[in-house]
């Protein structure tokens, strides 16, 4: 009994598949994983900073013992809000910069893949037209 899934892969030219499809796909996947890692790290860093600020504010609130302490706490809230707003703006800018970098690198990968595919197609056209041109010239010479 023969195995329907057993076939000889040697006649297939895997180098062309590798250069046109698999290599660019791996490069794009690696780029995507790198972006994901950077975004996760940025999110973890931001979450830690926001959590630390929240805990500090809770500790500060817990230390309030009188009206004067409450007044000081409330005045400090405005500064904390400004600091958190600045931090949020910086975090958003960081994410936008990471996404722009990803888009630029993706475009470079795409352009490289397209150029490689065009070169491969031109080589294929040359390889296909040369025998035909020789056959036409031989037929014309035989007339």
Question: Helix coverage percent of residues?
Answer: over 70%
Quick one: how many beta strands? 0
Which band does the percent of strand residues land in?
A: under 5%
From the spread of the alpha carbons, the general shape counts as: rod-shaped
Round the Cα radius of gyration to an integer and report it.
Answer: 32 Å
How far from one another are the termini? 55 Å
Low-confidence stretches: none
N to C succession of SSEs = HH
What class do helices, strands and sheet pairing give? Answer: mainly alpha
Characterize the main sheet.
none
Mean pLDDT across the residues is 85
Counted by DSSP, the helix tally is 2
Q: What does this protein look like?
A:
With 143 residues, the chain is mainly alpha-helical. The protein has 2 helices and no strands. It has helices at 14-62, 67-142. Helix 1 packs antiparallel against helix 2. The longest helix is centred in the C-terminal third of the chain and has 76 residues, at 67-142. It is rod-shaped and about 115 Å long. The protein starts with 13 loop residues before the first helix and ends with a helix.
Descriptive key words:
rod-shaped; 87% helix; mainly alpha; 143 residues; 0% strand
Could you write a compact summary of the structure shown?
The protein is built from two helices and no strands.
What does the secondary structure layout of this molecule look like, with pairings?
Blueprint: H1 14-62, H2 67-142
Helix pairs in contact: 1-2
């Amino acid at each position: 009994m023969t195995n329907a899934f057993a076939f000889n892969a040697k006649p297939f030219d895997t180098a062309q598949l590798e250069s046109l499809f698999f290599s660019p796909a791996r490069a794009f996947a690696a780029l995507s994983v790198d972006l994901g890692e950077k975004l996760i790290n940025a999110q973890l860093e931001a979450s830690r900073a926001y959590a630390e600020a929240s805990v500090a504010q809770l500790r500060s609130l817990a230390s309030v013992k009188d009206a004067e302490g409450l007044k000081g706490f409330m005045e400090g809230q405005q500064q904390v809000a400004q600091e958190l707003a600045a931090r949020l703006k910086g975090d958003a800018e960081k994410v936008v910069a990471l996404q722009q970098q990803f888009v630029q690198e993706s475009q470079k990968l795409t352009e490289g893949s397209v150029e490689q595919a065009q070169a491969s197609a031109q080589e294929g056209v040359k390889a296909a037209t040369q025998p035909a041109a020789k056959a036409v010239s031989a037929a014309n010479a035989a007339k």
